[in-house]
Amino acid sequence: MGEPRWLDEREARVWQAYLAVDRELHSALERQLVRDSGLSNADYALLVPLSEAEDGVVRSRELGALVGWERSRLSHQVGRMEKRGLVTREECVEDARGSMVRLTPAGRAAIESAAPGHVETVRRYLFDDLSAEEAEVLDRVFHRVLDRIAADG
Do 29 and 123 form a contact (C-beta atoms < 8 A)? Predict the structure, then answer.
């Protein structure tokens, strides 16, 4: 494996700042969602793709892939959301082994109510202090990192 390629001082500073941004932005978004809509980040993460899907229905396996979650985490979160009337589970007509997650009218109302405040918080903490050029750099950097991770699969 060879010698470790240690981070230099600048790289370590960038890495620590990234970790702090990830942690603090996630916390700020969670606080805003809970305060303003009673939704968690996990609720919101599932409601977005469901609200964007045709008929508000997504196969469970696909929903898990869209949000990057393991099957058990998805199942537990969908169960919590079912109890609150935000989603329902249905059998998959095409494949008896699969299941579908359907957005309920209450779930649609919840995401439509939460989205404006959520996007305002994202703007406030991420985009408002960036120039268009800086946002473009972040876009390129984030996609390059994601592409490398996907390639290493």
Answer: no
Enumerate the domain spans of the chain. 9-125
- Asked if residues 149 and 63 have their Cβ atoms less than 8 Å apart, the reply is no
* Residue with tokens 């390629």, as numbered in its chain: 5
CA distances from 142 to 61, 135, 147 (A): 25, 10, 9
pLDDT tens digits along 56-111: 999 999 999 999 999 999 999 999 999 999 999 998 877 767 799 999 999 999 99
Q: Against a cut of 0.85, is the pTM above it?
A: yes
CA distance 87 to 144: 34
The answer to whether the CB of 47 falls within 8 A of the CB of 107 is yes
Return the structure tokens found at 21.
Answer: 């941004």
| 9-125 carries CATH number 1.10.10.10 | yes
